[in-house]
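Human: Note token order:
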Amino acid sequence: MIRIVGKTSIKRDIRTPTTISSVVSELGLNVNSYVILLNGNPATSDEVASPQDDLVFLEVFSGG
């Protein structure tokens, strides 16, 4: 499952094993605006997410 948590929330399934960079491109995300977690652990864009994995993009917020 792919989840985006932030100003916009999205949930979708991962259909086939794919790199995180492919998911980022497909969804049109700016990788620098998110913390990426794969099964609860920090992940890099070259890692592969499979259908049984939990891939979460947490939007980075700043302010004060």
In short: Residues 8 and 64 are 21 Å apart (CA to CA). The first helix runs from residue 20 to 27. Residues 2-59 form a domain with the Ubiquitin-like (UB roll) fold (CATH 3.10.20.30). The mean pLDDT is 93.
